[in-house]
Design a protein that fits this description.
- The protein is an all-alpha fold and 365 residues long.
- 59% of the residues lie in helices and 2% in strands.
Length: 365
């Protein structure tokens, strides 16, 4: 099975699902990382200017951030892994050009910064709202900060980086956008899963402030991977139907691809099931003891509901009334109907935990 964009270099994600480093990068990389964060923060501020966005300042801020990220990704490069020795663990990985492996911190920084650089560069031509752009950029800042932990020692033994530029954006076609924004989406799902898991651990240990901070991090990542999903679908319905959808079903691939088998999103969904199944205090009960934690958990659950609602929206725009590509039965409901059912089931599960829970109840047929 070949990749959808075979000319795009493979992305190697960490086998342990952690996109957070334990040691600080070598000084040149660390300095470039801090510069990139500063540039992204400036762009984020301009995007959310309460007096309104101005085209020229926004473009300059974006150009500066893209340049800083490209420099960081170039400096962070390490020697390529032997890709022939890496086997995709699911068909989705083969399609998107993704592999998993044990990564040291230097290689993790190398892989993640390239993913962010490509997604950011595509914002130059993508048609996203300022709020969606801001959600992506804020998560980029958060991920980058996790690659340079302030309480860790700097690694003096990081491998030297090779000369030559990083292929930040190999093409400007919709299929390439589909692939590179999904790479970013995968990183964000892993980051969100880790934040939720950490929030649960801190809650069990009675560390309310740390639990609150981890929940806020998770909500930032969820809003960002929702925006990345909308980013990936920045194309017309005819373009999606002609250029993208056929690449995800036979004969292009052995079997139709589905997000349900995507390991990175499955990791996040598992973390959310654990949260909903084990942290069962109602919003009122939690708020009576730790109000900021209650609000942070509520924001995460709300963001997760909005994510699947946006999935309905983008599916309606690109697929319309057609069935899901994984539905064999032509009489089955539309892809939109399937997503709405999933959305209502999720809302029903979250209702007892939320401040303003959804009152819709599924009726068994």
């Amino acid at each position: 099975m070949s990749a959808a964009c075979p000319d795009l270099p493979l992305v190697v994600l960490p086998a342990n699902n952690l996109v957070r480093a334990t040691s600080r990068p070598a000084e040149p990389v660390g300095a470039a990382l801090r510069t990139a964060v500063t540039a992204l923060e400036s762009f984020h501020t301009d995007l959310l200017n309460p007096r309104g966005a101005r085209v020229e300042p926004l473009q300059r801020a974006l150009d500066s951030a893209v340049e800083a990220m490209a420099r960081l990704a170039t400096l962070a490069q390490v020697a390529p892994m032997d890709a022939a020795a890496l086997t995709p663990i699911v068909p989705n990985h083969a399609y998107f050009g993704v592999r998993t492996a044990d990564l040291d911190d230097a290689r993790l920084v190398s892989e993640v910064t390239v993913v962010i650089a490509r997604a950011l560069a595509d914002l130059r031509i993508a048609r996203l709202s300022v709020n969606q752009q801001a959600a992506e950029v804020l998560a980029m800042i958060q991920v980058l900060r996790g690659l340079d932990p302030q309480d860790a020692e700097r690694d003096p033994a990081s491998p030297a980086t090779p000369a030559g530029p990083v292929p930040v954006l190999p093409g400007q076609d919709e299929l390439t956008r589909w692939v590179i924004t999904h790479h970013f989406y995968f990183v964000l799902n892993l980051a969100a899963a880790e934040s939720v898991t950490r929030a649960l651990a801190r809650h069990r240990e009675g560390e309310a402030e740390a639990a609150r901070d981890a929940l806020r991090e998770a909500a930032t990542y969820v809003r960002a991977f929702t925006a990345a999903m909308m980013h990936s679908g920045d194309m017309s319905a005819p373009c999606y139907d002609a250029e993208v959808r056929p690449t995800m079903s036979p004969p292009a691939v052995p079997a139709a691809l589905t997000g349900r088998t995507q390991p990175e999103h499955k990791a996040f969904r598992k973390a959310m099931r654990t949260l909903a199944g084990t942290w069962t205090d109602s919003f009122d009960k939690l708020a009576a003891n730790v109000p900021e934690v209650a609000l942070a958990r509520d924001a995460l659950l709300e963001a997760d509901l909005q994510d699947i609602e946006q999935h309905v929206t983008i599916t309606a725009a690109l697929v319309g009334d057609d069935g899901s590509i994984i539905q064999a039965d032509e009489a089955a409901g539309s892809a939109i109907a399937m997503l709405r059912t999933m959305r209502h089931a999720r809302a029903e599960q979250y209702r007892p935990l939320m401040r303003f829970g959804d009152t819709v109840t599924l009726i068994a047929q």
